[in-house]
Known about the structure:
Largest sheet: 7 strands, parallel
Mean pLDDT: 90
Oligomer: single chain
Shape: elongated
Distance between the termini: 49 Å
Amino acid sequence: MDTMNNASNEYRLARKRGQKQYHDDLRRGVSPYPKVLDEILADQPVAGRTELGIFDIPIDRIVGTVTAGRRTAFSTGFMPLLEEQTEFGMKWISLCADHLGTTGIREPIRCYEYLGEFYVQEGNKRVSVLRYFGATSVSASVLRIVPAWEDTPRMRIYYEFLEFFHSSRLYAIRFHREGQYRKLVAALGFSPEHIWTAEEQQAVQSLFTRFTKASEGIALPSGATVEDAFLNFLCTYSIDEIRQMSSDALHSAIAASAAEVDASVSVSLEMEPVEKSVFGRLYDAVFLPDTLKAAFIHALSPETSDWIAAHEEGRRYAEQEFGGKVTTTAYFVSEAESADALMSRAVKEGAQVIFATTPSLMTACRRAAAAYPQIKILNCSVIMPYPGVRTYYSRIYEAKYISGAIAGAMSETGRLGYIASSPIFGVPAGINAFALGAQLTNPRARVKLRWSCVDADPLKDLIDAGVDVISNRDLPMPSRPQAHWGLNRVKSDHSLQPLLAPYWNWGEFYRKLLGDILQGHWEDNAFGSAAQAVNYWWGMQSGVVDFMMPNDLPEGVQTLAKMLKKELSGESLLPFFRTIVAQDGTVQSDGTRLFSPQEILRMDWLCDSVDGEIPPFERVLPMAQSIVRLEGIYRDTLPPQEEPNRS
Length: 647
């Protein structure tokens, strides 16, 4: 009898909750009752129906009933609305008594799933009782109604979910943006075709449940979901690392990375420092440090990598320029000491700024940013939207434009060659800028494209193809010239004559950025948003991009190169501000609008004067696949790298 009395009391409390929901919905001008699937499907084409069997479904995704028969008995949250003494009320109380007693509610409900939401056919009172007591899931026999395909964002996302469900049999994880399910599968280390075992289903379900609980009370950026945060977290921490975290440690790590979810990217194009107020200048005089210590973390040694050698030269140049106000230390990843360990050591040794010089170190950067929020951390990469880690790169396409103009002027045939590195962000912009520069001086010029990440000997291929000017790789630094790098003319005996060599001048970047930090301008590019990631993308104006020319280059050509550099540096010449037609005939620009920095960085098309294509991932050589996974223009669609032991 006590159980029934308790159940009656619970019904009255549940009904009060239902009445509040009812009146709140009326005030908001929406229906106060659950949705009805029959009404939704009345004018919607259906592709098919599939019995899925019995399994647990998220109870908060139950949004309605199949028919309208009992809809007015419930609020939108499935709380009861009818009087306690009705047949409905007595049955609810009886079920509640079972739930409170030893019997429990064990019989699965019967429901339909449509577009990821559930509609009850049998068991709506069971749902009401369980939902009232805070249950997160309920056992259900599910019939899926498959909607007919239509090319809309919602339908594309749902069909991605169908692929995911076929492999995982999981309903708990729900994304609202395209591509997220594939990213999750990749982050978990599964191939798209892998059918999850029962153990894997349980492991991921438990992991997500634990993550959801640990994230309670943490504010996510507007529009972001727990699923988005979970996916972002898996890109930084392995499953084993998450399992080993205590609840408090997991909560802290999620809080530290929350701003990264759905972060936007601010691209900094050599902005002038913001003029400070009198108060700001007084604050700087008191609180800004007189000296600065910077750490440089390298994945390779300068002896084995020209890229690292260039950054090392830049580090030494910047330190020398500050005459003791800035001290720098280089750290090199090895088998004995990982990037994570090096960053921790650098912080302990007093580093206030950390530069990681390759994209492969981004994960270590993100961990360090979470562990040491007071440290300024930067990674040499592009399009990595993490507010805790700023990125930096250069607008090398500006030098490519000049290189193309010189190639067009020096070519006798109009047949030009271009050797691209890898299909990563920014590379198509360099190819297109070269082609547009060539058209500036030779409107009939065509560019034959080869890729060093695909072709065994792209230089020989181009020479054999009859081109007479070739754009090869850029110089990593001006102090270490490399034979055949940069722009070369192919002579009659197939030897190469250097014409112009674009290069990256990292010393100027480090000098300027460290100077900005010393002067208190670190926050100038953040625009006051904690969820804003900053990407320094500097070009000729800053001196980060430049070129070398041999003295025997014709004087008129040298003058042209210098003139173009002056115009590009002053932004009075914009390579992409003109009519541009892509290979497929699409007009990418009618000549009346400017491309945004994001549009230039994310170019995934080639101009119609380019003969060649962007290679698919399958054709990329193994040595280049890791960088393409990180920064490839199609990285979000790549199949995951097999890691069978992660789950």
